Each structure stands twice: as C-alpha cells, then as structure tokens.
Fold this protein.
Amino acid sequence: MSTPHTDVEEVEAANTAFYEALEQGDFEALSALWLDPADLGVDEEYHDPADTGVISCVHPGWPVLTGRGEVLRSYALIMANTDYIQFFLTDVHVSVTGDTALVTCTENILSGGPPTDGEELGPLVGQLVVATNVFHRTRDGWKLWSHHGSPVLAESDEDDSDTSPA
Amino acid sequence: MSTPHTDVEEVEAANTAFYEALEQGDFEALSALWLDPADLGVDEEYHDPADTGVISCVHPGWPVLTGRGEVLRSYALIMANTDYIQFFLTDVHVSVTGDTALVTCTENILSGGPPTDGEELGPLVGQLVVATNVFHRTRDGWKLWSHHGSPVLAESDEDDSDTSPA
C-alpha cells in the first residue's frame, strides 16, 4: 500500500486507523487518534470560551459524550465488553474544507460479547450503522474531533408520513 | 435579544435559525442556511477531488444523504409530511476550531403529521434525538456543512454487554 499523499488520502487513512484501533481493542492507539485540545495549544482544564478542540462522540442509541474523559471512558467500557468486532466500511465519502474533514461511511459491523455460561464465544451480532466522523488537521496529522454513529432502521416505502424530521 | 458578537454566539444563532426554519417550514431559509460549495468558490458540478464544502445529512434512522440535491429534497419531503413540529433544544454545546464549529444538542421534538380521516390534526408524536451539527465559516456567516441526528434509545443498566461499539 502506498503512502497517502493528498488530503483525502490522508483523511481516509486516519479514518481506517480509527476502525482498526477498535477492531484490535488498542486503547492507546485509539486515544492518540482523538484530538487533544493540548495539540492545539489549548489547555482543556482552563476556561476556553470557544471550547477549541473539545471532542464529542455519539454511539448508536446513546446520548452525547463530550470531552476526552467521557469519550475515552466509553471506549474503555466498550472494549471491556467486546471480545470480537469487525467493521466492513462501505460508502466512504470525504469532504475536506480548510483544516477540517468530514467523513461519512456505513459501518457493517459484526461483533461478539464475552462468553457466558461456559461457552467459548459470546453471541455474534450484525449491525448496520452510519457514521459522520469529523477530523481536524494538526501538526501530528488528522485527528478525530467528533464521531456520531446511528442505527439504520428499516425503510418504510408504504408510508412516507412517518419520516423523522431532523 | 442582543446581536451575537463572539464566534460561539454566532454559531448558536445559526444553530437556532436552523431549527426555526424547520419549525416554520421555511424551505428557502433552510436552503440558505446549508453550505453551498459555490460560497467557497467551488463549483459542485466540476470534479473537485476533495469535495470541498459538500454537505451531508443523516435523519434519525436514515442512511447518509450527500450533496445539496439529496439533502434539500429530503427536507422538502419532510416538510410536506409535517403539519406541526417544535424543537426544544437542551444540552447545546459548541466547540469552535478555526473556521469550523461543532455543535451537539438534544432535540426534544414534538411533531404531528397531516390529518387523516377528516380529523383536524394528525397524531402528535414526541421524540428524543441527539444531533451533531457542523458549521463552516463563510463570508455570509456560519453555514451548515453536516447534520447527523439519531434516536436516543432507553438505557439498560442491568447489562452493559450489549452496548453498541461505534
């Protein structure tokens, strides 16, 4: 595989690295991929009225998590409860504007929890999730500023009136 | 109400304007709030390898919509099927980094469809949605680059092993 050169290639590589860190349960790699306000010369502990570089994350069906503490704790919890997870990404779309990149993709997920009752593996579950991932350019490369994943619910062709509004 | 001055105040005003346009069913106002690659000197029709300023949108439970055509058509459809909608926003958080702003908020939605069978109003439905809205700074103010809304599902305190992974 060649070294990425263009912005879009760099962003795609950062996006792939994010899902690989999750697949490998590599918490250190995952932590390093998320933006740290300190990378931008901002100390998150002090009051920055614009909350520059403060990350946020929405797992499918979850409320919003804000800041490195909440976000990284959620991944530690998820990793502790996931024995096996694989992401097949489709429909990856990248839009780069200035120092920010917007990635949308479909996550075709296969995952399994810890074994229960003496089984060798927990039950495997398939999930269809769409994600919007926002990356910011830093001196250390593109870092994840926001992840929002949500379940794709079945289409209802027969009745358009129950489409959700926003 | 005073005129917004700081970046955060300007972004909050743009975010509020987005939901007000939806409440009022004002398609023209809504269209003007979404980023247009032309505002950035990019012609969406020509091949821009970075897809600069190309918008995306995820309605709760929907797949990803990309580009002004798909996104604005979805809002036209939603507006045509919504007689009444009100958003009570809570937990609004803004993070501004350079020329991009990330807004997360909880949308407490009350909505109603068109009347059926001679009723005066369609049934009112309450919904709890969390949203990540990404705005980009242009000469015309902050414009919406991405909206991702997703349903908040009930917490299950008794069993952490079914937490969703990403």
Remarks:
- Residues 7-41+54-152 of chain B form a domain with the Nuclear Transport Factor 2; Chain: A, fold (CATH 3.10.450.50).
- Chain B has one domain: 7-41+54-152.
